[in-house]
Amino acid sequence: MPGDLHTHTNFSDGSSDIELLPKLAARAGLTHLAVSDHDTTLSAEYAYKHPVVRGVHMIPAVELTGFDFVRGRRVHILCYWPKLTPALKEFCTLMAARRNEAAEKSMNELEALYSQFCREEARAFAARSGVTYKTHLIRLLFEYGYTDGIYKELYGQLFGAGRGRVLHDPAYEPVQAVLEMARGTGGVVVLAHPSVYQSMELAAQLAAQGSIDGVEIDHPRNTPQDKVTLHELARQYGLIVTGGTDFHGMHMSKPTPLGAVTTADGMLARIEALAQSRSGAPRRDGA
Fold first, then answer.
1. Which of 168, 172, 158, 6 is nearest to 73 (CA)?
2. Hey, is 119 helix, strand or coil?
3. No. of H helices and E strands in the chain?
4. Cα angle at 1 between 194 and 183, to 5 degrees?
5. Is pLDDT of 161 > 70?
């Protein structure tokens, strides 16, 4: 059976505890699950410590953030079976500090705008990660009745790209540096959802350079046209093709239950074989 290779928990900007996700995966009939929280090793550490949960094989993963300064766009990189190297841990620590710094600026402004907004209550949503995200801030306003959902009109007004009233993005590292760091972990490196940040040109560039092992094609927000182009790119360069829901629990713009989008058995086998070839048999201790 297939696996959902792109999911999130409250180790980053998802709403659910990581312990829930393998339960949902098992109920969906999946045999594999990758919890790929943003710029943190917490979900990978969980997978190394819990290799099989309820019959579901846990694939250690992380979703890393970089920036394409040539085109002015964020880039997400999925990395499967990474060794938990000092460089990876340092990167995650750096991004955590930068995100919290940006969130503090946003919360200063939100407290001025909304007398009922309380930063300590917003931080409570980030208790397991220690990192406050925009979703935690809008969720508090949702609970207080200022909006009727997470990604609704108010989110756009407050946090919309380039126009958000209280938007403060963290500084990002260049995508090439992030890719180099990811490859240094010995993990399998996959460009996430190219349609989301309009990264089709970058996808072609990275594939031609041999900088990525695969590309995420089956994703709820990849456009049909881009999927056709990406399949041709994967065929041309022999890339691994992955799929996943980008599950965030209640922190989602459109309903997409875990397991609704998956990666095929053959591609799962390729990921594990490549990880084995780089690091020996996949290591459950992350060493």
1. 172
2. helix
3. 10, 8
4. 40
5. yes
pLDDT greater than 90 at residue 31? yes
Q: What are the CA-CA distances from residue 273 to residues 17, 226, 261, 276 (Å)?
A: 30, 27, 22, 5
pLDDT band at 283 (very low <50, low <70, confident <90, very high): low
What kind and span of H or E run contains 60?
strand 56-68
3 state DSSP class of 57: strand
**Angstrom distance (rounded) from CA 280 to CA 13:** 32
- Altogether, the residues listed in the chain come to a count of 287
pLDDT reading at 285 higher than 70: no
Partners of residue 153 on adjacent β-strands: none
Global pTM reads: 0.97
Q: Is the pLDDT of residue 205 over 80?
A: yes
Q: Are 262 and 30 in contact (CB under 8 A)?
A: yes
Task: Please tell me the distance from the alpha carbon of residue 129 to that of residue 40, in angstroms, as a whole number.
Answer: 8
Q: Single out the residue of 255, 184, 206 nearest to residue 75, CA to CA.
A: 206
